[in-house]
User: Which sequence fits this backbone?
């Protein structure tokens, strides 16, 4: 491990030791049952409307005349973890403060907020839904955390910020997420550092003819290639899931490569595809036959199949699996803690799996995040 990329300070060591002292091994592998999600009647806090659940609060609306809003981290003693669908849709806000407790931002949550000029997405956010900031005509500054966030389709479409990103590159990639390929042309090779492709990333792009995905991309989300009318070939050797309308109306698609570990193909994945293709499956016919896929799909049923058992996909990195045994469990947490406090003969076989903060260094903050992830399993 490159020591220059590992930041260990005395404070981190002390904190790690303190953390381990209050964390019994018997409790490390325990799980916490999720609280019942019972919604109560809508309530208001200042200019915000919210719904309170047993274990969290979701922001559902606001005073549409308000120009500046600061969402609190807690309301009535409960964490604000979600900004709901349409919560600020069409509002007058020019500034918004999203707290570090929010995990999800709903579809159309801020869309058509014509005065919104900048937004900072906190590290806590894990998912941003469909067109959350679409048509924010003055949104020119988007501050995203240094980690991958899963996004649905067109999250920042029709904004000055997205226009600027498209001018920089034909493939808009943010921390490992390919969120847009609207300007891509011809034969596209997606970079190796991409781990996730947002829904609708290439939607209605009639200029692309082929796409090669790296082995880190295991899912083709909904509408990724919707109506890509000149798309002929897609190499997705590691793909194990194809979602709804992913290839709908791709009527020139004649070459498709996927993993033999396919788990599911949505019944509308190849909706209205009339071409006849050769599908190369990197695995056995037995594996392919076990996949959950539509039995009456014309595209799949008319295809010629090649089963290639020679290809072995690189193992997918499991977050937290610092001992590299293919599983994230209590042993990884114990090993990480021992390494942080400098225990002799302690080795992290895959230190990057422990970099939960994704800042290319390991410290006590990663240990805290690892513990939370293990409890949440």
Assistant:
């Amino acid at each position: 491990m490159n020591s220059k990329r590992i930041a260990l300070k005395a404070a981190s060591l002390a904190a790690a030791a303190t953390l381990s002292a209050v964390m019994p091994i018997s409790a490390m592998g325990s799980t916490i049952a999720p609280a019942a999600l019972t919604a109560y009647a809508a309530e208001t806090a200042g200019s915000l409307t919210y719904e309170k659940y047993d274990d969290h609060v979701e922001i559902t609306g606001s005073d549409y005349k308000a120009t500046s809003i600061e969402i609190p981290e807690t309301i009535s003693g409960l964490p604000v973890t979600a900004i709901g669908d349409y919560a600020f849709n069409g509002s007058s806000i020019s500034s918004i403060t999203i707290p570090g407790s929010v995990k999800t931002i709903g579809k159309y949550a801020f869309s058509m907020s014509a005065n919104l000029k900048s937004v900072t997405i906190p590290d806590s956010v894990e998912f941003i839904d469909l067109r959350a900031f679409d048509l924010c005509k003055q949104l020119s500054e988007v501050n995203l955390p240094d980690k991958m966030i899963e996004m649905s389709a067109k999250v920042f479409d029709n904004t000055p910020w997205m226009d600027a990103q498209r001018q920089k590159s034909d493939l808009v990639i943010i921390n490992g997420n390919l969120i847009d390929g609207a300007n891509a042309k011809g034969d596209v090779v997606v970079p190796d550092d991409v781990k996730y492709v947002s829904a609708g990333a290439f939607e209605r792009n009639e200029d692309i003819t082929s796409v090669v995905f790296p082995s880190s991309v295991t899912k083709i989300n909904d509408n990724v290639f919707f109506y890509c009318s000149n798309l002929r070939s897609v190499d997705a050797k590691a793909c194990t899931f194809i979602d709804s309308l992913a290839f709908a109306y791709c009527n020139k698609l004649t070459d498709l490569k996927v993993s033999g570990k396919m788990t599911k193909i949505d019944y509308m994945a190849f909706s209205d595809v009339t071409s006849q293709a050769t599908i190369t499956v990197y695995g056995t016919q037995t594996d392919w036959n076990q996949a959950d896929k539509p039995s009456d799909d014309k595209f799949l049923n008319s295809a010629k199949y090649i089963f290639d058992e020679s290809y072995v996909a690189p193992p997918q990195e499991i977050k937290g699996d610092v001992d590299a045994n293919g599983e994230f469990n209590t042993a990884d947490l114990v090993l990480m803690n021992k390494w942080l406090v400098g225990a002799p003969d302690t080795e992290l076989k895959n230190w990057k799996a422990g970099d939960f903060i994704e800042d290319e260094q390991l410290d006590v903050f990663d240990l805290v995040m690892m513990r939370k992830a293990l409890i949440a399993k």
